[in-house]
Amino acid sequence: MESGNSAVADESKDAFSYINERPVDDISLEFFYKPHTITLLAVSIAAVIYTAFVRDESRIQDNIWSGICCVIFFFLIVSVLTFPNGPFTRPHPAVWRIVFGMSVLYLLALLFLLFQSYSTVYEIMYWIDPNLRNFHIDMDKEYAVNCSDLSLPRIWSHVDVFAWGHFLGWMFKAILFRHTGLLWAISIMWEITEIAFAHLLPNFLECWWDSVILDVLICNGLGIWCGLKICKALEMREYKWVSIRDISSTTGKIKRAILQFTPVYWTPVRWLDPTCTYMRFFALSQLVVFWQISELNTFFLKHIFEMPPSHPLVIARLCLIGVIVAPSVRQYYTYVTDPRCKRVGTQCWVYGAIMVTESMLCIKNGKELFGQAQMWNVIVWLVIQILVSIGCVYGVVLYHQYFEPNRGAGVDSPKKEK
């Protein structure tokens, strides 16, 4: 009995290690994968000594900035040495350790801001960028006006940089989720979310044709279609990796170096199947709702703290969340679909903490804004979110049961990257 329990424990540990700190399967250039801890320590200390003793210390603000950058620099070095790389190893495990380190730094920054007053947070932001003092949200600006003018030039005038952002964002989400039903459910529910919170966020007000035609059908729909086509092409591709040392031509070496930024393998995902448990069913429904909350955080943060959409802080947060979400979704998928995995990955755990902390930061500092909330709208929105997410997931189960009854359960092999 003890040997059987030990074997189960080892199997569970292996499944968790596969998503939390996956080893490199085939090392072709050993130099880039050998530890260089002493060299890294010496170079880091030399860089700090040089910058600390030769820089100008006459300005206090520059001194503080330099100290913060040095702390971040060393924290990311420690991240490379100690943190897990998650489920990905391309282009190098160190890249994903840095991503994990940046996510931890962001979480710590959010927790620090959570214990500050609204005015203190504003002063910190003004210290980072004094130009923010001159920007304020125009609450009197009118949105969704003249909606009866449904002409091609009017529709085309709305195809701006934000429309391209919608398209690229949904293409990225399609590559992450790789499931048509779930993606369309999230897309439609987001439009319902915009309607429910339009009284708090005026930029959520849209003409019906802007919401239905431009957002759902064109931007979101094309992004989902293109993302799934990319996934399909990567699934059909034959992966045979050759060491760069075995390639003779310069062109071949350059091509192999570029391909280092692509996955080792690409396998189809199967979030649900006819035999899935209720826990798996509700875990996926929970994911759909949490995704909506994470999207809402983006808009409430820049509205409450009054930042323009093009501000570097807004763009940097979106880019950081984007790279954090990739391993987080993969870890959550394995935790939900693989019965051998008993724990969620650390990157997914940190991302969950980030999502909750961002929401608390918005609620704490947006008391005046949320005081205007129409609770009936929020309650109806929450009920619709729960019902639609559960209904969508159940519909996917029925689809797999009646239209794909012979397809396997789809638990990924521990040898595969994605």
TrEMBL record:
- Gene Ontology terms describing biological process: phosphatidylserine biosynthetic process
Q: Per the UniProt record, which residue ranges are transmembrane? A: 31-52, 64-83, 95-115, 181-200, 212-231, 378-399
What is catalysed by this protein?
a 1,2-diacyl-sn-glycero-3-phosphoethanolamine + L-serine = a 1,2-diacyl-sn-glycero-3-phospho-L-serine + ethanolamine
Provide this UniProt record's keywords sorted from A to Z: Endoplasmic reticulum, Lipid biosynthesis, Lipid metabolism, Membrane, Phospholipid biosynthesis, Phospholipid metabolism, Transferase, Transmembrane, Transmembrane helix
Matching InterPro entries: PSS
From which domain of life does this come?
Answer: Eukaryota
Its EC number(s): 2.7.8.29
Q: Does the keyword Endoplasmic reticulum apply?
A: yes
Q: Name one GO molecular function term.
A: L-serine-phosphatidylethanolamine phosphatidyltransferase activity
This protein's membrane topology, according to the annotation, is: Multi-pass membrane protein
State the similarity comment: Belongs to the phosphatidyl serine synthase family.
- This chain belongs to the protein called Phosphatidylserine synthase
Tell me the classification of the organism that encodes this protein: Eukaryota, Metazoa, Ecdysozoa, Arthropoda, Hexapoda
